[in-house]
Fold these 2 entries.
Entry 1:
Amino acid sequence: MLTVDQIYHADAFEIFSRIDDGSVDLIICDGPYGVTTNEWDRTNNIQEFNLNLIRIFSTKLKEGGALYLFGKPNCIDFIDYRLFLELRSKIVWFQPSRLAQGRTRYTNNYDIICYFVKGKKSKTFNLDAIRVPQLVELEHRLRCERVPSVTNGKFNKTKFNDKGKNPGDVWGDIKQLTYKSAELVSRDALNTIQKPEKLIERLVKASSVENDLVLDPFAGVGTCPVVCRRLGRHFIGIEKDKNFVELANARLAEAGRGVSERPNPV
Ligand SMILES: C[S@@+](CC[C@H](N)C(=O)[O-])C[C@H]1O[C@@H](n2cnc3c(N)ncnc32)[C@H](O)[C@@H]1O
């Protein structure tokens, strides 16, 4: 087994065999999308590429463990992932600020995050950790009247939780980074590389608990490892670009220490 809480400078496909089967609680896979001309983003067929990853990850995950796979809207079209993992949600990460210059069709302004679980039952889904504010309108309605809501065709009392509501599967509340974002580590990481910490944080909080092991096979500039360190999760990061590994390690050093003192989960 690999030493945890490190980012390996390597090709992910050369590292997978060194990760024990059934040892990982959560995988955040933000790898190639197959849409840009960047060398790291080139694949002959993104769906087949993703199917191969899903197959490999299904062996590495614990029963009930989760995989979040990032991509474009067609990233898992026409492939049979059901042999390996159960698709629970397709989250739309809506990016209203994306330049929309298409002239012959509607410009794509969202990414997909496919949420898979190994087996029928997820072992962790911490809804309370990721609740978002209720709509003001609903709060108002609750105060003024007991309005019925409709569930399965039946009328029920409106359920209002003051801790907030489930974020749903269209996320427009987390903005893409811009060149002005304080957390941006390098202009080279803007657009295709660095994800907002808030986005990764929601996934890590929802699908893992303290001391769990999180695998980030395409770690870029280390957003997921940084979030894991801050939230007390163990991680294995892999990234083949040496400059990105250096930037990620600098971020990790900033993110605080102490997690390495915890017992190794494997
Ligand atoms: C979308 S970026 C990930 C960004 C990351 N989530 C972050 O916030 O910094 C994808 C990364 O995968 C890396 N990559 C692509 N193919 C790889 C491979 N086979 N092994 C390791 N890293 C790879 C690229 O160099 C790139 O940095």
Entry 2:
Amino acid sequence: MSTATPQQFDIVIAGGGMAGSTLAVALLQANPALKLAIIEQQAEQISSTSFDSRSIALAAASVELLAKWGLWAELAGKACAIKHIQVSDRGHFGKTQLSAAEYQQQALGYVLEVEPFGAVLSGKLAQYKQLQRFAPNTISGITTTQQHQHLTLNDGTTLQTRLLVIAEGGLSPSRALAGFTVQERRYQQYAVIANLALAQGHQHTAFERFTEHGPIALLPLNAQRYSLVYTVEEAAVNRIMQLDDAAFVEHIQQAFGYRAGIFTAVGRRACYPLSLRVSGDIVRHRTALLGNSLHNVHPIAGQGFNLALRDIAELVRQLSAAPEDIGGYAMLRAYQQARQQDINTVTTATDALVRIFSNRSRLMALARNGGLLAMTLCDELKRPLAEQAMGLRS
Ligand SMILES: Cc1cc2nc3c(=O)[nH]c(=O)nc-3n(C[C@H](O)[C@H](O)[C@H](O)COP(=O)(O)OP(=O)(O)OC[C@H]3O[C@@H](n4cnc5c(N)ncnc54)[C@H](O)[C@@H]3O)c2cc1C
């Protein structure tokens, strides 16, 4: 262990991915005097683990938060508006169609590719000289005192902070080091993602379609492309990933049908094992969890990062309300109380939706037709759909 004097910080963020980096921007925007550090295991300025080839659907409220933190002005031109959502069940006649115009809105939400999002965040963070980045680094030891968390990094560097925020994603090792326990449910499913080129325009329509191979979501992207999220059973994932590009495009076309037009090409594919991981506690002494480290949900309803943005907004609000009490008991307790209900609702509803989508019965098909992405983007639809999914409505 190093005997050098530890470097002092107000807040240390473990994990510089989507949630950790956005938190840093939001915190420094609210209080530029904060002394902040990010510890990131990846050496690159933009973590390729978090900012990979996926795209995310953002609800209107999330866009408002990104605007408040000075990020949306740069992101707006890179995002694609969702103006219509179509939910359908292959083999059944029913379909649900929603349009922004019905809600007197410009858009039901936006789709953002996370790679350019990473570049915008990184550029913003580079402007703050008091932000220190430790990378490639991980936390190897945590010692707690009344006023501080003392962190030892893998290279022996020592840091002292009033608040440690853990945003290391779903498999966070520091979360266990800090004493949190996690509940996990493995779904035995994978999400296969890729961008698809189209023979025609997409008219800003997002699709969610249940097929016999698994649910397929298509999110509209700029330049006449769709972002595909294809949920497949564990047993099928290797076969699907090993298809050559032409065979993969053909497979998706056959599985999805022609509602979204003709797919002409596919970009780089990636796949993710899917599970639900939720921490029992949101905070412990001078430590808070955030983003996937707190709630790692199935991407079926596109909720994960939207939920993380609400965590960030609340943490920033609590820190701004009590700047003298950074990491104190009252501040952390208020963060926990404010976030608990939203996290419970979203994790329970998303888990229920996964089970509905994994079920082939006709009754479940009806529930599916209520819409998933629709639930994320239209608040009015959220409660009835969630209640139906949880069996609280018939
Ligand atoms: C296929 C797919 C589609 C999705 N679609 C949507 C969507 O449409 N809408 C939506 O809202 N959400 C969506 N999500 C969820 C969204 O991607 C996550 O909510 C988001 O990535 C969470 O960010 P995070 O920073 O918490 O975690 P991560 O993105 O996992 O980032 C964690 C960071 O911590 C770093 N790290 C890990 N361990 C350590 C360590 N020990 N020390 C230091 N650093 C460490 C990693 O390198 C990484 O940079 C989707 C997810 C998937 C998989």
